[in-house]
Amino acid sequence: MNPRLTLATTARVLTQIRHDPRTVVLLLLVPSLLIGLMAWIFVNTKEFETIGPALLGLFPFIIMFLITSITTLRERRSGTLERLMTMPLGKFDFIVGYTLAFGLLAIIQSLIAVGYAVWVCGLTISGNVWLLVLVAVANAVLGTTLGLFASAFASTEFQVVQFMPALVFPQILLGGIFIPRSQMPDVLRSISDWLPLSHSIEALQKVTTDASGSGTVLREVGIVALWALAFVVVGSLTLRRRTE
Amino acid sequence: MMNSGPAVVTTGLRVRRGKSEVLHDLNVAVPRGQVVGLLGPSGSGKSTLMRSIVGAQRIAGGTVTVLGLPGGSPSLRRRIGYVTQSASVYEDLTVTQNLLYFGRVIGAPRSDIDRVVREVDLAAQANQLVGRLSGGQLSRVSLAVALLGSPELLVLDEPTVGLDPVLRRDLWTLFASLAAKGVSLLVSSHVMDEATRCDRILLLHDGNLLADETPSELLSQTHTTDADDAFLALIAQAQNERGAAA
């Protein structure tokens, strides 16, 4: 891995996105609009206080998963990846370059979403707001790396979109948003312990409800980061210089 | 000695794609400092041979030696320029931004960008998004990327497809001038009249090498006056031989 080539890849990806202003606007504003809608739906109940934090983690995760898996699939299909693999670009340069570019977008997206949820929608945060941003960013990076990984197993855009219900929905269902994970059947709870999204939802709920839970939050974020790292490593193994 | 041998040598090269073998025991040599045309109908294995040379193709047997090193060696990645059949450039970047990125990846000096843009005659389009260019301009962007860093070997898969006669002539002139500077070129095409512009011709049919000759040798041996006829004569001959063997 060569930091110069990694950053060159990051700069290239960001330049590509800059040429597509509609995507940038959608990417940055849609999560906030959805959070606003949720706050409005639950305006007469207390539900938003429990669902709101989870949403702050879910949107960056889902959106980053989708855009990353589709853009990298595009690299595979357009021939640019094959060309890069005949050049002195390392596999990690490629994957980490993408992760950094989308991670940066995720930071901006999360800052906007958290700011909107707290200041406009009135979400109360007992813990540190910056910790909430950190968890949201970790989620976005998780989505990016899972998307990179998933794109390796898709050969068409149709397949890559199907990976969303296949890989993302089960994690949402088992993540403890609908009912607390402690009330799930044992088998499902054990499975959910091993899903990265469960840990990020746990971290989000902790940071919003517990002012003294920073230690737990950081531990959960650490687990999410390890998962993201694992996806980067496995994702780079799926990049091949030689193909059939 | 390392620099005097051929640019590319394959011995007994076999490539399988799925269940069928697409290259059968192929022995090919590309001499240095020449423009070698790789001709043959579509599906004859031209792209597969090129991918094997640049190290993008998994091979089932035989050897590929490129610039004295085993094909696919990491140190070759800066020394080969490769144009795939699809454009393989980023449509949502401008011409210059594409060249800037690929130039950084191979470590080419920045001054190379102006040079290659001029060589492929895209100076007027340098700041346009690649996605808005015409098909012929698009394939020239891809060629420009391959020229970055002045590689010793250029492997160009149908670089003149979709270009008008003037541009095609200009590109073949460029290829000849690169060869005169010592660059080795392997250029595939299915347009037979381009064969006459090459120093040497490799004729591929159904994964077999039918001919490895100079254009004039090809014409005199097949008693024909143009490349199309020569090619048809060789294919008929190959099919007869196969029919006799079976």
Could you please describe the fold and organization of this structure?
The complex is a heterodimer of chains A (244) and B (246). Chain A has 244 residues and is mostly helical. Chain A has one domain (3-237). Chain A has helices spanning 3-18, 21-41, 48-78, 80-85, 91-120, 129-151, 157-173, 186-193, 196-209, 214-237. Chain A is globular and about 55 Å long. The mean pLDDT of chain A is 89. Chain B is α/β, with parallel strands linked by helices and 246 residues long. Chain B has one domain: P-loop containing nucleotide triphosphate hydrolases (Rossmann fold, 3-Layer(aba) Sandwich), CATH 3.40.50.300. Chain B is built from seven helices and ten strands. In chain B, 48% of the residues are buried. The model of chain B has no long low-confidence stretch (mean pLDDT 91). Chains A and B meet through helix 1 and helix 4 of A and helix 2 of B.
Indicate how many domains the architecture of chain B comprises: 1
User: Strand sequence of the main sheet of chain B, in spatial order?
Assistant: 6-7-8-3-9-10
Oligomer state equals heterodimer
Number of strands of chain A: 0
Strand content of chain B: 15-25%
User: Kindly state the mean pLDDT of chain A as a whole number?
Assistant: 89
Number of domains of chain A: 1
Distance between the termini of chain A: 25 Å
Q: Gyration radius of chain B, to the nearest Å?
A: 18 Å
H/E element order of chain A: HHHHHHHHHH
Topology of helices and strands:
The complex is a heterodimer of chains A (244) and B (246).
Chain A: H1 3-18, H2 21-41, H3 48-78, H4 80-85, H5 91-120, H6 129-151, H7 157-173, H8 186-193, H9 196-209, H10 214-237
Chain B: E1 8-17, E2 20-30, E3 35-39, H1 46-54, E4 61-66, E5 69-70, E6 80-83, H2 95-106, H3 111-119, H4 135-147, E7 153-157, H5 165-180, E8 184-189, E9 200-205, E10 208-213, H6 215-222, H7 227-245
Parallel strand pairs in B: 3-8, 3-9, 6-7, 7-8
Antiparallel strand pairs in B: 1-2, 1-4, 4-5, 9-10
